[in-house]
Amino acid sequence: MDGLTLYAESELPTPRGPFRLMVYRTSAGQEHLAIVRGELPPGGPVLCRVHSECLTGEVLSSLRCDCRGQLERALDRLADEGSGVIVYLRQEGRGIGLGNKIRAYALQDAGADTVDANLRLGFDADERSYDVAAAILSHLRVGAVRLMTNNPDKIAGLARAGVEVEAEPHWVSPSDHCRDYIEVKRARLGHIHEPETDKVGGQ
User: Fold this and answer.
1) Which of 184, 190, 201, 176 is nearest to 112 (CA)?
2) What's the domain range around 40?
3) Is the pLDDT of residue 129 over 60?
4) Closest by alpha carbon to 181, among 117, 124, 123?
5) E strand intervals along 30-155
6) Residue 154: inside a domain
7) How many structural domains is the chain composed of?
8) Per-residue pLDDT tens digits for 31-74
9) Is-catalytic flag, 128?
10) Is residue 96 a part of any domain in this protein?
11) 126 classed as catalytic
């Protein structure tokens, strides 16, 4: 991807052990992250999560979504396996931004589901792109991934950008507050459901 540069890099000690944090900057000034554990195997496939920012879930512990649980599970898996990468994309609210995400929450409080709320605000149901994620993986010399996701659009987006994808479903236990939200993503956005319990998760 033209205009993507590695802007900063540092070790990051965490309760799960050390990670390497790499900040990539686009020509438009947007910053995205690669959170790397260990040495990435040449040729792959590399254990990978492409995760979109969720300030409300990850910082404020919102129960409206399962984003924080998914991020933590991905970090746990990287720590357990000793190698892998999380590409953390700064595209809040399925790409509509924080302010519009909160406006969408207000519409949901009034009865709209998560898809209709975005549509009423004039956006697509999901505005995200995965070209930057593919470019970051290319810079890391990762051409094949074991992708932790339940989102078919994410799988297709990376594949279109030239990444070889083997999908690994990525479920976490939903709270009572987000069960309907997750069911809408399964029913209307095609997210993979968990066959053992018919419960779904995933972004």
Assistant:
1) 184
2) 5-91+128-184
3) yes
4) 117
5) 31-37, 46-52, 84-89, 144-148
6) yes
7) 1
8) 999 999 999 987 779 999 999 999 999 999 988 888 899 999 99
9) yes
10) no
11) yes
